[in-house]
Each structure stands twice: as structure tokens, then as C-alpha cells.
Specification:
The protein is built from 9 helices and 6 strands; from the N terminus they run βαααααβαβαβαββα. With 233 residues, it is an alpha/beta fold. The protein has 2 domains: 144 residues, HAD superfamily/HAD-like (Rossmann fold), CATH 3.40.50.1000; 78 residues, Orthogonal Bundle (DNA polymerase, domain 1), CATH 1.10.150.240. Strands 3-2-1-4-5-6 form a 6-stranded parallel sheet, with helices on both faces. Helix 7 crosses helix 8. The longest helix is centred in the N-terminal third of the chain and has 19 residues. The mean pLDDT is 94.
Length: 233
């Protein structure tokens, strides 16, 4: 009997919307700080703070909110008021309680693939927040295994494949981030389907590699995924 194929799925901005929530909060954040600095200055300072704090806070809404408060206090020389800080905290709570909105074709793609392949969810970020979103999504039962990790790199994917006894040549990863979802898997000898979201966080920007013919695929939406999987197999 041949070894089964495994298909890995990213979650945020692959199965459900996520970055659009951050986009709306960024807009309100720029409004709060407009009397101190222009939006470009605020965005640059916030990103620098996020990158500096990433090893401490990891990915997710909670780390973002701590970095946004720190940035506001720093670039205003402490003039950011307690009331404005409270407003940021309230925005963070709204983000954490936001409904989970599935992307177009998510249900259909999983339904089409689940009978013939083993599905694995691999998502990074805050454990409690990712568990909350997965529960609200109604998709958890479609996956043979769920991995919530702090980082997505070759080491992480290698350990996941080893833990589930998956050979890289039988593994296809689906995700919106070329940097986190596709490049590490290709480096291990697996395959990837890049399904870009309309917004990409600067930290996730990366160029598509060359020389990965037959292992790197591109899709405009998840509706194209079943056909791509057949070509890959």
C-alpha cells in the first residue's frame, strides 16, 4: 500500500480572515497618534518595536497590543494619555473576540480533499487565541492533527513531519505566506501552494524561489486547490 499524502494548511489568512482585523486597528491607531506624528512615521516605529519584541512576545494580538502601547508612549515622550491607552486595550479585546470569517472556498476545499488525503493544520501564534479561532471556525474536525507553533521555519516543519511520520516528498503545504508557509517546506523537499491574501504583513514578505518546478504552485483562491493537488500527485 502506498504512503498516504498529507496536506498541511496554514490558518490565518489562508482558511480565515485575520490581517484585515489588524488593518482596521492600524487605521484607528494612526488616528490616535495623528497629532504627534504622520502615519508613515508611526508605522515605521511600530514595526521596529514589534520586531524588537518578537523574541519576547511571539506572534499574535497580545504581543501586537503591548508593542503598540510601548510605541505610542515612546514616540509621544509619554504624552499618550491613560484614556488613549485604555482605548487601545479595548481595541485589543475586540480583536480577540472578533468573529471568525472563513475565506472563500475553505469549506469546499477541505470537504473535497479530506476523503482522499490526511489533513494537518499548522498555525503559529498565541495558543489560546489560535485555539479560540479554530473552535469558532467549525473546521477542527476535518484535520487529523493540529499543530500550534511559535515559529514556522525548517526546524519546526522538520519536527512536525518527523512526529507524524510524514516523508517530505508526500507533504504539500498550503498558505498565504511565502516566507512562513512555503519556503521552509520546499527546503525540506516538500511542496507548497501559495494562496496570497490581499494584505501581507511586512515581516512575511519574501520572493518566490526559482528551480522548484513541480513542487511550487500558485492559486488565486482555495477553490483551485483540489485541481492543484491532483497535478501534484
Amino acid at each position: 500500500m502506498s504512503e498516504p499524502s498529507w496536506i498541511g494548511f496554514d490558518a490565518d489568512d489562508t482558511l480565515w480572515h485575520n490581517e484585515n482585523i489588524f488593518e482596521r486597528v492600524h487605521e484607528r491607531y494612526f488616528e490616535l497618534l495623528r497629532r504627534h506624528h504622520d502615519a508613515a512615521t508611526v508605522e515605521k516605529a511600530l514595526f521596529a518595536t514589534e520586531m524588537r519584541n518578537l523574541p519576547l512576545y511571539g506572534y499574535g494580538i497580545k504581543g501586537f497590543m503591548l508593542s503598540s502601547i510601548e510605541t505610542a508612549l515612546t514616540i509621544t515622550d509619554g504624552a499618550f494619555s491613560p484614556g488613549e491607552i485604555q482605548e487601545l486595550i479595548a481595541l485589543g479585546k475586540e480583536m480577540l473576540d472578533h468573529p471568525v470569517e472563513l475565506l472563500e472556498g475553505a469549506h469546499e476545499a477541505l470537504d473535497a480533499l479530506a476523503p482522499r488525503h490526511r489533513l494537518l493544520l499548522i498555525t503559529k501564534g498565541d495558543l489560546r487565541d489560535q485555539e479560540r479561532k479554530l473552535a469558532k471556525s467549525g473546521l477542527a474536525h476535518r484535520f487529523q492533527a493540529i499543530e500550534i507553533v511559535s515559529e514556522k521555519d525548517t526546524g519546526t516543519y522538520g519536527r512536525i513531519l518527523q512526529r507524524h511520520a510524514i516523508s517530505a516528498g508526500r507533504f504539500l503545504m498550503v498558505g498565504n505566506s511565502m516566507k512562513s508557509d512555503i519556503l521552509p517546506v520546499l527546503a525540506l523537499g516538500g511542496a507548497g501552494v501559495h494562496v496570497p491574501y490581499r494584505i501581507t504583513w511586512s515581516h512575511e514578505n519574501a520572493e518566490a524561489p526559482t528551480g522548484a518546478e513541480g513542487r511550487l504552485f500558485h492559486a488565486a483562491s482555495l477553490r483551485e486547490l483540489p485541481g492543484i493537488v491532483e497535478r501534484w500527485r
